[in-house]
Amino acid sequence: MSLSINSFNKSDLIIQMERKFSHLNQETVVEAVDILLQEIINHAALDQRIEIRGFGVFSKKNIRPRKFVNPKTKEISYLGETSTMHFKASDKLLASHD
What we know:
- The chain is of the alpha+beta class.
- The protein has helices at residues 10-20, 26-45, 91-95, and strands spanning 50-52, 56-63, 66-69, 76-79, 82-89.
- The strands form 2 sheets. A 3-stranded antiparallel β-sheet has the order 1-2-5.
- A hairpin with a 3-residue loop joins strand 1 (50-52) and strand 2 (56-63).
């Protein structure tokens, strides 16, 4: 099984959802995807883990505070703690891309 997946963005998700739910019009599918993504963002921001069975898990990953050096001026600066979204694809999703 290959674990490499080509990129899959919002427009790809909309296209797949339109194919799967052909009885819905495009505006409804776009609105549903927007609501779903916004809810994932809202829950991850509250440090909640979001699991969608057969798709994957979304979570918030905290990056520790760190210092960095500007290579041009050699000035030392500090960057506070930051957060990023983490996604781990389910085995079922990975298997469907083989």
